[in-house]
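Researcher: I need the complex structure. Ligand is magnesium ion. Inputs:
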Amino acid sequence: MITLKNVSIETNSRTNNSFLIKNINLNLRKGDNVGLMGPNGSGKTSLLMAISGLMPISTGEIIYSSDDRSVSVIDYLSAINFELNAHDNLKLITKLYDPDRVCSEKFVDLVLHDAELKKDRSKILKQYSSGMIMRLIISLIFLINPRILIIDEWLTVLDSSFRNFVLNKLSSFKDSEKLLVIASHDRNFLEQICGKIVNLENGLIENIEKLG
Ligand SMILES: Nc1ncnc2c1ncn2[C@@H]1O[C@H](COP(=O)(O)OP(=O)(O)OP(=O)(O)O)[C@@H](O)[C@H]1O
Ligand SMILES: [Mg+2]
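Model: Output:
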């Protein structure tokens, strides 16, 4: 579904370490649940941004072999308007990223129900905690049901009940027609949902582990 060939992202800085990621070769196929691990600053977010088309690459190429648009949690989070309430944000974000979908009141209700945020629907998002915002976006994305889903580290803000909800949803991606790429520092979580783990170190792929 997505192939990365010699992908690098270079900054303009003149420091020695001017590469965010360097010479990344990776094949991401449907049915793959791929976990990205590595220390802070190792390039996980940069790689996910590049795959999502949110960060330009300096060299190499990223080939998308299907028409499926990837849905990136990073992208959805950046579209939030903190002065609007949950209801209005859902309408806005759906219109922005999924214009063919009619964001009916029933759909808004479904998202809020899954996110367990029905009672908070009228609060502006400035008054939401980071975990509540994440619940809202993740629930929206699961209902949109994308074929390619890209998620950056976010587990730390989820409480255990919602974490289990997410775990079940993400497990269903495995061996399906879908592709999941997820960065996390939580190896235990990744081992439960991923078929392979790509370990990054200083912007390079250190190794790829096959699980199970
Ligand atoms: N926009 C940017 N411009 C310049 N350097 C950047 C930019 N974004 C990230 N970096 C640098 O690129 C490197 C990789 O950062 P990145 O955010 O991809 O790491 P990460 O693996 O996601 O880390 P973390 O675990 O902390 O989330 C770091 O050295 C960081 O300082
Ligand atoms: Mg990161």
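Model: Summary of the prediction. The longest strand covers residues 19-28.
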